[in-house]
Design a protein that fits this description.
Length: about 350
């Protein structure tokens, strides 16, 4: 997940779309059809995974039948958005388990798309790393989610921390040795009370692997059933205590000393930003339903990458099926229109109410 903080579109802005601020391109209104196609596609290239993260809905429920996205479905979706700006090749699953991944990246790069994905880094090696470099991948975001092996097991369910560090270090060394500027590699930590004190150490560990960018990602949690570590009491939102704020400041200082960039997920330029509450109806700031389409490995259209983390049950917010309908039919279909309308109302879809109101990290 990423870019969780959306902003309203600036009026009359006809500059080219920045792939990192794509959501600003939306012309937002209730009712009727949306003239512009999505600028960003999330394609869940697989829903398989080799970890059991205690923050992830996949660990606690079978969301859909296990699948990798077929090449036919992938191209069918991508070909329907010829002017696409940005593609994110992960959903709820581990994208680097997919054999076709470099081919998918190449297919999108040949069409001028900015391509990235998050990975757990467990299977990154010289062969698949090289294939991704050659395919032209723009960004590789590695979920460290801890600063040491002990807390890694707690958060990610398996004892792979040292393996990930080794993989990332080798990949960064390869890039430096051969002068590959892309993909930009970043390290991510999902912010929780459980791990906030590790933030400065996390920055140091990331630096040791050769990564230059670190990100603090906000925890999205289920409102009703409280599972694993994706619980309200783990989120830092509105409950940042003095000591916790101190770790954030210290991590910023460490990053500065080491010449690294440190940001919170989304467009916030300083990490603390995403910890603060954003008004009484924060969901109304969200522009995803006007800019983004998300497809599961089986072709199901969802509003965004956050919904699976904030509300159980895909049925509650399924907006279409790319194996049956065209993207245009889905994008301007009754379910999408209703979803947009309710997002602009006082009674947002349930997934959005908990996503926005719990604007935690
Ligand atoms: C669902 S994963 C898919 C990609 C890959 N499997 C990985 O873990 O990086 C995408 C991102 O969501 C993060 N994540 C997991 N649980 C989360 C939660 N409850 N809130 C926010 N981010 C979460 C992961 O750490 C990862 O960076
Ligand atoms: S967060 Fe990523 S690595 Fe962890 S279980 Fe979910 S999909 Fe797998
Ligand atoms: S759950 Fe709703 S408010 Fe949250 S990012 Fe998705 S569409 Fe936006």
């Amino acid at each position: 997940m990423d870019d969780l903080i959306d902003k309203p579109a600036p009026p009359g802005d006809d500059k080219p779309i920045d792939p990192r601020r794509y959501f600003e391109a939306a012309a937002v209104r209730a009712g009727g059809e949306v003239e512009t196609p999505p600028v960003c596609l999330y394609l869940e290239v697989t829903n398989r995974c080799n970890l059991l993260c205690t923050t992830c809905p996949r660990t606690y429920a079978k969301l859909e039948p296990p699948a990798d996205m077929s090449w036919a479905l992938f191209t069918r979706i991508a070909d329907q958005v010829p002017g696409l700006t940005r593609a994110v090749l992960h959903g709820v699953g581990e994208p680097m388990l997919v054999r076709n991944l470099p081919k998918m990246v190449r297919y999108l790069k040949d069409r001028g798309v900015y391509v990235l994905f998050n990975t757990n880094g467990t299977v990154l090696n010289e062969k698949n790393g090289r294939a991704l470099i050659e395919a032209g991948l723009d960004e590789l975001r590695v979920s460290f989610d801890a600063s040491n092996a002990k807390s890694y097991i707690k958060v990610r369910g398996k004892d792979y921390f040292n393996r990930i560090l080794k993989n990332v270090k080798a990949f960064r060394a390869l890039q430096e040795r051969e002068g590959h500027l892309k993909p930009r590699v970043s390290a991510w930590l999902t912010g929780m009370k459980e791990t906030i004190e590790e933030l400065p150490a996390f920055v140091r560990v990331a630096a040791e692997t050769g990564v230059r960018e670190v990100y603090l990602q906000r925890l999205v949690f289920f409102d009703q059933d409280q599972i694993g570590l994706a619980r309200p009491d783990q989120a830092l939102f509105e409950s940042m205590e003095k000591g916790e704020a101190h770790y954030l400041k210290e991590a910023e200082a460490v990053a500065k000393t080491l010449g690294m960039t440190f940001s919170a997920s989304g467009a916030a330029s300083e990490p603390g930003m995403s910890l603060k509450k954003r008004g009484d109806s924060p969901w109304s700031l969200c522009r995803r339903p006007w800019t983004v389409m998300y497809f599961t490995a089986n072709g199901r259209a969802l509003p965004c990458c956050i919904a699976p983390f904030s509300q159980h049950g895909y049925e509650n917010y399924t907006l279409g099926d790319a194996t049956q309908d065209s993207l245009r039919e889905i994008w301007n279909g009754a379910r999408y229109q209703d979803f947009r309308d309710s997002l602009l109302s006082d009674q947002p879809p349930q997934a959005c109410a908990s996503c926005g109101l719990r604007w935690s990290l």
